[in-house]
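Protein in question kept in full:
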Amino acid sequence: MLFTAGPGCRILTHAAGGEWQLLLKNIGITAMHMQLLHNDRVVIFDRTDFGESNISLPDGKCRNDPNDRALPIDCTAHSVEYDVASNSIRALFVQTDVWCSSGAVMANGDLIQTGGYNDGERVVRIFKPCSSCDWEEVPLGLAARRWYATNHILPDNRQIVIGGRRQFNYEFYPKSGNARNVYSLPFLVQTNDPNIENNLYPFVYLHTDGNLFIFANNRAILFDYSNNVVVKTFPTIPGGDPRCYPSTGSAVMLPLNLQEPSIEVEVLVCGGAPDGSYTQASKGNFVGALKTCARIKITDPSPQWIMETMPRARVMGDMILLPNGDVLIINGASAGSAGWEYGRDPVLNPVLYKPDKPIGSRFEVLNPSTIPRMYHSTAILLRDGRVLVGGSNPHVDYKFTGVLYPTELRLEAFSPEYLDSGFSNLRPIIISPTSQPKIGYGQDLTVQFSVTGTLNPDMVSVTMLSPSFTTHSFSMNQRLLVLKSGDVKNVEKSTFTISVTTPGSVNLAPFGYYILFLVHQGIPSEGIWVQIQ
């Protein structure tokens, strides 16, 4: 049952299948890029050359940029910080264009954002998590222009920046004195479809062996970035349709179960647009999106893609790892492709994917939003288990009237069914450690928690999640680990402890901030921040 809601009001009264909440009617900009930081604030930005946004810069400040293609002098913000606790927005100042850029959080918690468009294409920007901090810019911090690139944090606390428009190479940040600036990656040439590309924002994951899994267009490689060597070439996804921008699907690396003696690594790629859809959309023909997912176990000696069918076709969807190991597929359209005005038929219902269920029974359709989230939408997981959803602007400028899908400034939260009040007696609360402890590798850690209802000790696990930099339907650096654990012990009434072992190496969990959750019967606690170092 639906009813009209103001900010902070629930708009879906039926919690089975999840619940939607409108958080803010207007955050001033469209949420094209989002990153949660360890102070529970979310950095959001769109682009500087959209024209005036709906939020002014503070204290009469204006951006003076003679290179800007819309407004050389602009007194409005194109980046904001969302405070989860107070449900409020703070305007941020970004000087150069951040459109279609990439980023990752370093071990110390700083957000490093790279590239963009026009005068921003080689800029590195740094955002430190503090209540009064703002963007710092490093001109020419990159060796090559990076627009539609992908970043991944590495075990040595550098970032690798891969690809981008007309960039068939990669580089590292920060730079080291003896390293070459740019390294060739022929795989990006091989996966480039002439005049369409279909290999931008490649899906990149750090394998447990220290190499990188890189997926572009419809196929993938295992890549030794230190020696610039392709270690393995994976098969093309059956059917051969493209899955990367602008035929935009999405992907996740499924949870890494550290309880197993041999850790299996699986990647799931879902949705996208059939070959030729982008060209057809440019002519006004909107081809139905892909309805398939492809799953591959990259640790197998001879890995093969296993195909599955979603309840509905989807292009430009986001895939979010939930604390209990399920995957939420949200946002997007069922026809067309990414690009200006090229998407049609919004998919309002999220879908839950349960990776451990038998094939054929893994998908569950959830309750719909009322807001189309088309091109330039985003979604990220918050520490309380909700999913923050924003964005949608398939236009060259901000357009609020006279178009099929107006520029969207509203910010929503989707609460998966595990947050329903009917599960409150099963929901664990972490007592200790308190938030922000520093932990080491291969370390024993005791987690104390309470459950008011009847505890099932065989259904308790502890997970660690790396929050993602999300844009264009891909969550960079998203990673969930299920920690090795011992027996649950009853300390006193409704209070228990479980001993876990932290990840054993930087290949499993690179240095930095993670959210630690305790999960009971599929119901996660509110997370706590931990810093592994």
